[in-house]
Amino acid sequence: MQSAECLRERVPAELRDFQWESYSFQSKLWYGNKALHYEIWPREKLGTIEIGLHFEADPLTNARLLAAFRANAKVVRRALVDARLEEWDRGWARVWEPLPHRKPDAQLAIELAKGIAAYVSALEPILRRELPSDVVWVEPTTRPRRARAAAKSRTGSAVR
Fold first, then answer.
1. Confidence of residue 155 (pLDDT cuts 50, 70, 90)
2. DSSP assignment of the chain, as one string?
3. Arithmetic mean of pLDDT, 25-33
4. Has residue 93 got a pLDDT over 50?
5. Nearest-5° Cα angle at 100, 98 to 102
6. Quick check: 96 and 150 in contact, CB under 8 A?
7. How far is 19 from 89, CA to CA, in rounded Å?
């Protein structure tokens, strides 16, 4: 089972239509704006695997969203006990938590799917409610598997 499919089973039905990118062990998923995405990010040198919601849009949008999530901190912490809300590099911000780093295997994939599903389920309703009206948001349209595979193949050969 692919990671995106494993994750789709774990989020509410209304949140199953997301975009997904995976580069080896690092993965991102998003809905209406790729700059506002959920991420699984292995950071081997730091001994962690980060899971969370990243605000990587312009600094003003990021600051506004971080403020909105801080205003909802009690709700966030009830759902995600170990979540951290913070400003980050390059004017970015994030709601995240570190997990112990370990080598990828089937059990870790399931744990990460459960973890990121918890983030999506808890945070996406807040994100959509608090999203400033001037932030671009286009709901994804799911492409058939063949179209995704062909696009990935074209991208892969262009990089080589």
1. very low
2. --HHHHHHTTS-GGG---EEEEETTEEEEESS-TTEEEEEEEEGGGTEEEEEEEE-S-HHHHHHHHHHHHHTHHHHHHH-TT-EEEE-GGG-EEEEEEEE-----HHHHHHHHHHHHHHHHHHHHHHHHH--TTS------PPPHHHHHHHHHHHHHHH-
3. 93
4. yes
5. 130
6. no
7. 24
